[in-house]
């Protein structure tokens, strides 16, 4: 399982939690509840939301990797995660739990904090608390022919800011002169501001007395970290109801209902005036001091507008807050039973997620321009020009040219909320049946077991609609990095599928048993696309205790609604630096010319100290389905009693991958190869040649352009032994060796392997080895003690790779994130038969995470919190009462 969205992601958060098998992406992992599809999680981000799983009802989690589209349909390209819930609960169960983080500040960046006069937080006794409550009721009825189960749950999670951890209390940048490789940095959208003369290329700010002076990034950059949430606040209500009744041996009716209402808030640094927008100032604005007019080339008392870039934080108004709410309903009704040797299951399922988003404390770009165009009216009062000419009588002049010049009225005029709403819906009809043909004598002559056959039909309809208000859709929200345009659509698919289980040989020398399984699915989409998938598996028990197994799968993933219908819009992407920017670019003038930099611009292209640049994204209705060929081969060994060893090799090759050419890849390929396909995707600003101001962007629309390969080895060990009179010890370990994690950004172009790397192109850390080992003592005294060791192998910054798509400008002074070992401890005690008390400590030794300049969405707080334990030692206490 690779990192995805979670509670410790703030900038770019979706408010959902996702799962990603084999690192192929959450869209390629199919999530099921009791073997049935979970509806899409969000109209802006479709992978299923795991927040809806009622965990106290969880019996087990089944994970099937290697591709499973022939069995479960599209989206199971990487595999399936199936949450099996208890639908035959009896009794009354109440659970209450509390967890908090405890952390000692280690002083990882004390020198950098002191150099910038930033405060350091003190040690944490307990913060980031989570309270969980649940009630489960269940009973059999009708002479045990039926069961009804009801579940109610509530979870409340407290907010935690990056300012509450020393290593995240300043925004880190790269600095090769520091021993750590880091220094406190920040954004040039700063306070009291950065004013950029578009003619001379010089930048200015002013001191606390209002005196104009040159802008110096090491002194003036804005520390955007402290206001960012390191853990989002969250309120979640969940409910579930299950019922089943055996009408006869031939029919059992059943029903399932799931509900979730999840409300979360993501907070990041204040909005303001950003460098991506050009503002026009005139000499008629009496708020602009003479010194600032001179610095910016503005002639006093004239109406001639001068183009200026301004980076100025709205520190007076506070952080941007993204209020996210997801309300989910899921219902299933069906009947299943046995008729002789035949079994059948017919069901209907409906699911819907209602989405609401309110974005607060952002600035209006259009209003900002009006507020910066101030003049004196006939009475000598300073007002907006739009007030004088009547185009906007509500305008309030924005006085950012003097210390303490900004008022609540100015912020009230500029602050603009953004609204989004939408839904996803799903409707599924399924009919399947199976038969043991052995009852009719249909079996292999070398096996006593009959051939098993299963056939089925499924009809599925998916809908999604995201609506955005004018502020979002026009790009008027300054802090969004571009417009967010609504997207909607639907498609339907009809599947026919079948599975065959063939026991071939048993009880002969060298073959204790040999079984072959096959599966096939044909899918017809309303988008005029058809797909077919298949799987072949083999299970060969050589002798008792020694088994070989393997499978070959062809899996598919049809394009989803966003990939098909998303409108084109400009958004931000992260990159350490533009190789063609700055006074001494890292790429030559000839190479930069290929990307659109003129001779006059070379050496004068402004860079973005925040590492954010423009890309243009959009959908494509002509997309075809992705396909994957996967192979798994393994062995199960039981050399002695109570010792089980599994070895499984896996290999995936994804073709026609729906992707955007990563902007960093396009830029690197253009610089190094001059390939016109990549160079044609780069559009620099016509004035200064940058990739983050004006009309600049790198094209990154959806297309079947990419390929991907991954391969590795899973190793598992389970053993245990009895202690005379003292219970039993059980030990288990599961690890994965990642051999290959290779991307082909455009078919036919050079590939790059991210196994063992992290960075702007490779994303979250992809360690070559990870494992989890657990030892549990089950005592005869109603006490159980468990300890686990989680290991994440070290990874290098992708910049040290010799691959041309990764090295060069991506190089970083922090060349390696070290390996991390986390130890966890838990104890449970059952007393009075009905009560169980559980106490746990995660990250027992309170290790700080490895530090990195990690961009959104999966990077947060100068690390990767969805990979590493970022917040310290987590202590939990849980009480369960069951009657």
Explain what the structure shows.
This protein is mainly beta. It is built from twelve helices and 46 strands. It has a 22-stranded antiparallel barrel. Strands 11, 12, 13, 17, 18 and 19 form a six-stranded antiparallel beta sheet that branches. β40 (769-778) and β41 (783-792) form a beta hairpin. The chain is globular. The mean pLDDT is 93.
Beta fraction:
over 45%
Number of beta-strand segments: 46
Shape descriptor: globular
Contiguous helical run count: 12
Chain-averaged pLDDT:
93
Q: Report the end-to-end length measured between terminal Cα atoms.
A: 36 Å
Alpha-beta classification: mainly beta
Main sheet overview: 22 strands, antiparallel, barrel
Helical content, roughly? under 10%
The Rg value, from CA coordinates, equals 30 Å
pLDDT < 50 runs, ≥5 residues: none
């Amino acid at each position: 399982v690779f990192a995805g969205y979670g509670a410790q992601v703030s900038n770019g958060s979706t408010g959902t939690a996702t799962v990603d098998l084999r690192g192929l992406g959450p869209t390629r992992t199919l999530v099921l509840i009791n073997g049935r599809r979970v509806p899409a999680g969000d109209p802006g981000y479709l992978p299923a939301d795991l927040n809806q799983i009622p965990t106290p009802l969880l019996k087990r989690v089944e994970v099937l990797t290697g591709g499973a589209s022939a069995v479960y349909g599209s989206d199971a390209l990487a595999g399936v995660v199936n949450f099996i819930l208890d639908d035959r609960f009896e009794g009354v169960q109440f659970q209450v739990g509390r967890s908090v983080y405890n952390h000692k500040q280690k002083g990882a960046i004390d020198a950098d904090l002191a150099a910038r006069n930033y405060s350091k937080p003190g040690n944490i006794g307990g913060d980031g608390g989570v309270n969980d409550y649940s009630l489960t009721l269940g009973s059999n009825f009708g002479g045990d022919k039926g069961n009804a189960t009801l579940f109610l749950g509530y979870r409340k999670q407290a907010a935690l800011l990056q300012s509450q951890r020393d290593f995240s209390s300043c925004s880190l940048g790269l600095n090769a002169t520091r021993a750590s490789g880091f220094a406190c940095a920040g954004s040039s959208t700063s306070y009291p501001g950065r004013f950029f003369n578009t003619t001379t290329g010089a930048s200015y700010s002013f001191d606390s007395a209002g005196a104009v002076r040159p802008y110096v990034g090491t002194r003036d950059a804005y520390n955007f970290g402290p206001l960012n949430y390191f853990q989002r606040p969250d309120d979640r209500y969940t409910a579930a109801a299950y019922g089943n009744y055996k009408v006869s041996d031939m029919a059992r009716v059943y029903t399932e209902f799931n509900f979730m209402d999840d409300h979360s808030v993501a907070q990041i640094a204040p909005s303001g005036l950003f460098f991506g927008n050009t503002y026009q100032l005139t000499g008629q604005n009496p708020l602009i001091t003479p010194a600032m007019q001179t610095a910016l080339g503005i002639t006093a008392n004239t109406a001639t507008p001068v183009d200026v870039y301004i980076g100025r934080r709205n520190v007076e108004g506070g952080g941007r807050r993204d209020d996210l709410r997801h309300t989910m309903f899921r219902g299933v009704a069906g009947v299943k039973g046995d008729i002789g040797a035949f079994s059948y299951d017919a069901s209907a399922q409906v699911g819907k997620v209602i989405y609401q988003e309110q974005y607060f404390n952002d600035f209006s770009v259009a209003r900002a321009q009006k507020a910066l165009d101030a003049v004196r009216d006939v009475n000598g009062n300073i007002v907006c020009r739009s007030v004088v000419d009547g185009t906007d009588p509500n305008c309030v002049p924005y006085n950012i040219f003097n210390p303490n010049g900004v008022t609540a009225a100015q912020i009230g005029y500029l602050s603009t909320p953004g609204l989004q709403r939408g839904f996803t819906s799903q409707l599924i009809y399924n009919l399947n049946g199976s038969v043991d043909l052995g009852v009719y004598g249909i079996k292999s002559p070398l096996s006593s077991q009959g051939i098993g056959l299963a056939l089925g039909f499924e009809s599925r309809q998916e809908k999604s609609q995201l609506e955005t208000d004018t502020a979002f859709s026009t790009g008027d929200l300054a802090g969004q990095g571009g417009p967010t345009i609504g997207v909607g659509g639907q498609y339907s698919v009809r599947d026919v599928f079948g599975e065959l289980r063939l026991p071939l040989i048993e009880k002969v020398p060298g073959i204790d048993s040999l079984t072959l399984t096959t599966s096939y699915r044909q899918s017809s989409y309303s988008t005029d696309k058809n797909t077919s998938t298949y799987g072949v598996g083999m299970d060969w028990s050589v002798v008792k205790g020694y088994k070989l197994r393997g499978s070959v799968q062809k899996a598919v993933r049809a394009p989803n609604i966003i990939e098909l219908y998303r409108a084109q819009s400009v958004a931000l992407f992260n990159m350490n630096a533009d190789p063609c920017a700055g006074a001494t670019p890292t790429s030559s003038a000839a190479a930069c010319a290929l990307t659109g930099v003129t001779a006059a611009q070379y050496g004068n292209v402004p860079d973005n100290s925040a590492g954010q640049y423009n890309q243009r994204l959009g959908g494509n209705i002509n997309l075809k389905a992705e396909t994957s060929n996967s192979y798994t081969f393994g062995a199960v060994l039981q050399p002695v009693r109570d010792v089980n060893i599994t070895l499984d090799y896996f290999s995936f090759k994804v073709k026609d991958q729906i992707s955007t050419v990563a902007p960093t890849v396009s830029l690197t390929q253009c610089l190094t190869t001059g390939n016109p396909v990549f160079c044609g995707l780069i559009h620099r600003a016509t004035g200064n040649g940058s990739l983050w101001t004006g009309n600049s962007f790198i094209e990154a629309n959806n297309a079947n352009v990419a390929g991907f390969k991954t391969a590795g080895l899973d190793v598992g060990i389970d053993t245990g032994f009895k202690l005379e009179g003292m219970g039993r010890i059980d030990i288990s370990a599961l690890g994965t060796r990642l051999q290959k994690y290779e991307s082909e950004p455009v078919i036919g172009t050079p590939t790059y392997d991210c196994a063992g790397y992290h960075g702007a192109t490779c994303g979250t850390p992809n360690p070559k080895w990870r494992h989890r080992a657990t030892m549990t003592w089950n005592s005869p005294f109603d006490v159980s003690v468990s300890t686990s060791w989680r290991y994440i192998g070290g990874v290098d910054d992708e910049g040290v790779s010799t691959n041309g798509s990764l090295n060069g400008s991506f190089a970083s002074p922090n060349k390696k994130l070290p390996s991390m070992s986390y130890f966890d401890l838990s104890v449970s005690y059952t007393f009075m038969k009905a009560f169980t008390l559980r106490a746990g400590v995660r990250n027992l030794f309170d290790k700080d995470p490895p530090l990195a300049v990690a961009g959104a969405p999966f990077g947060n707080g100068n690390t990767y919190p969805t990979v590493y334990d970022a917040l310290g030692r987590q202590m939990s206490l849980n009480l369960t009462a069951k009657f």
